[in-house]
Amino acid sequence: GFYLWFKPYNFSSYTATISRSGVTVLVPKPKLLPHWRTPFLSFSWPLWIAVMVTFLVGIIATWLAGTPWTGRSDLISEQLTLSDAALMMVGFFVAQSSPIRTDLWSCVCLFASLLLAGFMVSNLYSGGLASVMTVPKYEKSIDTVVDFAASGMKWFGPSPFFLMTDRSSNQPYLQEIQKTFRSVRLEEMNQYAHMGGSGFFVEQAQHGNFAPSNFLDRQVSTTLQPLKDYVYTQNCAALITNTNPLRSNLNEYILRVQQSGLLYHLGIRTAIRYLPTDVMRNIERSRMHQHDDGAVRLELGHFFGAFFILGYGLLCASLVFVGELWGTV
């Protein structure tokens, strides 16, 4: 069978479609996010920025509210320092009690709003953290051709001729993946597959079976997954002369074979006989992660993030302490 390309059509004719074939890419499977990032996954980065801005604004507002503007000596002794204001805001955000001024209505309104904001942030963070610690989080998955083009990842194949269909395309993402394609031998493809971080050309038949890919072995097949869509699809047909008198009969026979399901049966038998079953099974089930059954039990690794924050805080405190001692000498 031949793809329905234009040049052969200038001097010959195509029969009815025998089968359909699609070209897609095998990309690396997303990995589990490291445990040290667990405390930071409860909120998205825009939400973290909003929380930090609220925290800084609250510190400034609390410090200004605790600053006496009348010059009375009894109020000056109760003046809040900037560190006091920061610790007060930390207490609000972790649902802990903090001393507040109640002699001014402005302070009452300010601290009431800060208490409410801290209560909401604390509860939202607790709920998000519980979800993150029990439901595994993975890296961003490359699912479509557009995602693959945006990643800028190199991909490899045995020949550049299968990209001829996309040469005339004006789609930006198709033009981008043509720039990142590299034609290499099968031995080199196997080496790149073991190194990771690259995509690989693969052809998928009409009924879901993948074409033989000699660069795939059992170890590599557990680290790759196919895209959810195709780079392109093409119909395959037989090529005959323009004056062939049996063209109509051949087309009728092809359609009857398609209707009977014989091609599906032969495709399954061929895949079972000639393709490595375990490798193809790994590729077909690659999007079924091992943690898809539900929540996982908490392990020591889930607390690495808390230990990381504790260690970072101790390191910063030690450096500041040494700096203070150095300044007093």
From TrEMBL:
Keywords: Cell membrane, Glycoprotein, Membrane, Receptor, Transmembrane, Transmembrane helix. Residues 45-314 form the Ionotropic glutamate receptor C-terminal domain. It holds the Pfam family Lig_chan. InterPro entries: Insect_Ionotropic_Sensory_Rcpt, Iontro_rcpt_C. GO terms for cellular component: plasma membrane. It is found in: Cell membrane. Its main location: membrane. GO terms for biological process: detection of stimulus involved in sensory perception. The chain crosses the membrane at residues 45-67, 79-97, 103-125, 303-323. GO terms for molecular function: ligand-gated monoatomic ion channel activity. It is a multi-pass membrane protein. Belongs to the glutamate-gated ion channel (TC 1.A.10.1) family. This is AGAP012872-PA. It comes from Anopheles gambiae (African malaria mosquito).
